[in-house]
Amino acid sequence: MINSFIFNIFGGTGDLAKKKLLPALYNLYKKDMLPENFKVISIGRRNYTKNQYVNFLMEDTKFSSRDKQLDDFLEKITYYEMNFDDSSKYKDLDVLNKKLGEEIKGDNRVFYFATPPSYFEVISNNLSMYYKNNQKNHQRVLIEKPFGSDLKSAEYFNEQLEKAFDKNDIYRIDHYLGKEMIQNILTMRFTNQLFRNNWSKDSIDNIKIAISENIGVEERINYYDSVGALRDMVQNHLLQILSFLTLERPFEITTESLKKEKLNILKNLKTFTPDSIRSDVVFGQYDGYPVKSETETYVALKTEILTDKWKGVPIYLMTGKHMSEKKAEVLITFKKDTSKDCFFNNDNVENNLLAFKIQPTEGVYLRINSKVPGNNDVSTVSLDYCQTCNTNYSSPEAYEKLLFDCLNRDKTLFASWEEIKYSWTFIDSITKSCESRRKALLKYPRGVEDIKESTKLIGGGKWFLD
Ligand code: BG6
Known about the structure:
- By secondary structure, the protein is of the alpha/beta class.
- The protein has helices at residues 15-30, 50-58, 68-75, 88-104, 120-131, 151-164, 180-191, 193-196, 221-225, 228-246, 255-267, 274-280, 398-407, 417-431, 434-438, 452-457; strands at 4-10, 37-44, 77-81, 109-113, 139-143, 170-172, 204-212, 281-286, 298-303, 315-320, 327-334, 353-359, 363-371, 378-386, 441-444.
C-alpha cells in the first residue's frame, strides 16, 4: 500500500469534490485504507478561508455529524485559492506541495482534474512544468470525463496530456467501473460454467443496457447543453459496461489483458450510417429543458459487435434524464429453446433471462423454466439475489474503489486512451452525420417510463425487469 500522498483536487469547490471525492477519501480513511501520512489540497476559485471551506463541505449530508475522526480528516485538508489559468499560482502550489511533502515525509502527488473540461488543458500544461522536476513515478494524474467532445478533440487533448505526463501516470476515470455490480459482471461470467459456454451469438438473443435518472440537468446546464446524453453517458459508461459484458475471457485478468479484450470489442462495434441512424437511434428531450436547444437528454440505440462471436446479436443502449426512476440494469435475454419435445407442454417455455441490477438495488436475477407441480406444464421461476437487501452489507461508493486503486497504481478499472479513441469513433458516426441533425428530437414529459419509439426499437417489452 502507498505509504504517503498529497491529493490535489482542481475543482475543490465543485459538486464532484464535495459530493463524491472528499466523502470517498473520508470513507477510505474511516476504513483504515489510507496511510496515516496524507494531505489534501482543495484548489478552487472561491475566496474561502479554511473554516468557510469546511462549512461548505459540511453542507453535504455525506459528512455525518462532526466527531473526532471527521475532525482529524478535515485537519488534513488545505484550501488553496487560485484561478486555474493563472500560471503564477502553480509555482506556489508546487511550494505548498513541497512543504506538505516534508510534513508527511513523502512526495507522492495526485492531481485530480475535477473541473469543467475547458480547464483540463491549461491545468495540465501548467502542472507539467513542475511535474518534470519530480520523479515521474511519484505522480498520478486523474482525469474526469468527458475526455474530449469528439475524436479530434480527444486526440488533441490526449497528445497534450501525454506530452506533459508519463503515460503510466495518467488515470482516465469512468466512475461506473467502480460500481460493484459492473465488476461482478466479470466474476459472474468467468466463474460460472453455466454462463461460460453460453456467452455468444449461439445462445444469446439480445443484450440491453439501460441507465435512467429521475433528475434533470439542473445547474449543470452550461456543461450539459454542449454535450447531451450520447457524449455524457453513452461514450463512456454504457460502452464500458458493454465491453465488460462481451469481452473475450482473457487467460488471466490483468490490466493489460482486459484492456486488450475491451479494445477488441470497441474496435468492432458497428458504427452508424444515415440509414441506421434513421432506423436505430431515438433522441428525446424532456419537457421544460431549461434552454432552447437541440441537445438530447434521452437516447436509445441499437448496435452490434461485428466479431464472429457476436455478429447478429442486437445490443440496445438507453439512457435518459427526468424519467420515472433512477435505475441502471443490464438484461441478457437468451435464445428460446424451440426444440419440440412431446413430454413437455412447450407453449409456456420462455427465454432465459439474466439481469445485472446495478443500482439502486444491487443484485442478480435469473429466470428459468421449471415444471409445474403435479403435471408436465412448464412455467417460469426466478432466482433473485439482492445484495443491497443484506442489512450487514453496504457497497463502497464507486469513487472509493477507484481512488484506492489509483493510489495503489492498479489501472484495471480505468479506461485506456485506445478505448476512449474507439468509443469516440462510434459516437462520432452518429453525431457527425447530417442525419442526426435532421432526426426528430422527441419531446417527452418528465417522469416517463419510456418513449414509444424506443419501446418499438427494442421490439416491445421493457428496458428494465419491472
Ligand atoms: C455522470 C454524468 O458521468 O454520471 C451525469 O455526467 C450523470 O450526467 C451521472 O447524472 C450518473 O451517475 P450515477 O452514478 O449517479 O448513476
